[in-house]
Write a structure and sequence with these properties.
With 332 residues, the chain is an alpha/beta fold. It has one domain (3-293): Rossmann fold (3-Layer(aba) Sandwich), CATH 3.40.50. The chain has 16 helices and four strands. It has helices at residues 3-13, 35-44, 68-80, 99-116, 129-143, 156-167, 171-188, 199-204, 206-217, 222-235, 238-241, 256-269, 273-293, 295-314, 316-320, 322-331; strands at 23-28, 121-123, 146-153, 193-198. It has a four-stranded parallel sheet, sandwiched between helices. Helix 6 crosses helix 7 (171-188).
Length: 332
Amino acid sequence: MDSDHQVALVGASSLQMRHPRRRVLLPLGMHRSGTSLLTYLLHTLGAALPDEVVGPAYGNPLGHWEPRNFVAINDDALRAINRSWDDPRPVDPAWFRSRDAYRFIERIIVQIGRDYGCAPFILLKDPRICRILPLYLTALDILDIQPLVILQLRPFHEVARSLADRDGFEKDLSEVLWLRSIIESEHLSRSCLRVWVTLDQVISDWHRTARRIASALEINWTEACEEATWESSLFIKPRLCHPIHQSSTRPDVTHWLVSQVWSAVQHGLAGDDAGAQRRFNELRVILQDLDRMSAWRLERLKQRYDATLAAIYDSTSWCLTRPLRALKRLMR
């Protein structure tokens, strides 16, 4: 075991947890919702990360903090069901009970052992997990590791603006992705101990947010919180982490379902998880009905986006800059 991994284990063992059972923090949130910032904060408080994580890139200059090996597994799982991280179409729940799905459960089990060793308190973040959470919950059950879920939220209009700036996404695509991510992750995580937080809460008062997370998930990291104060304060830079907040203060209500989902989220943020579940039960049925009625629209939206990407990849400028992109990957 290398020295960095040993440091991670020491940091994790310094947490005074109320339960001896191994546990994993799962920040679940839509892309561009601040899960990277939250993950870094949780890591400074003592939760272990693997050595290989996705580092800084355009749109996220402070790093992504996603375990690289699990991102590869998640991409492969999505490809197996003809999906990708930016595909808004629903996933058939029956697939998670298939032989094909079990292959990915086995990969997750093996990779947890390779990347985390015997660390008692680990951290695993990738927004893709919102769509394939059953694979992880089954793997964690087999390993007898308790999942602790943090539902990370950010208003739709901010996520949409960020995806438009970084990836050129149309608002319609971002809207369905945002709805799907929140509604599915809420439903799939109901068996877990969980807490609801927003990006605003992390940025405005991360100490208070860390205490709320600790209380809800039965973690005691008071000492680690004090030690992490200086490092985390340097990392939380609102201008870089949250550039849209200052210019967009009104909620987006252009789509009725978006406003209803954000209203349901408020129950969770207020600590009323039962109330949130009741509202999300209704909203999940509505989304399923919309899926049945507009499958053709989702397919057309995906085809239009794929066509745009294909045009970019076939362009002269993309071909000319391929060596530079390859060099950049090698230098990471």
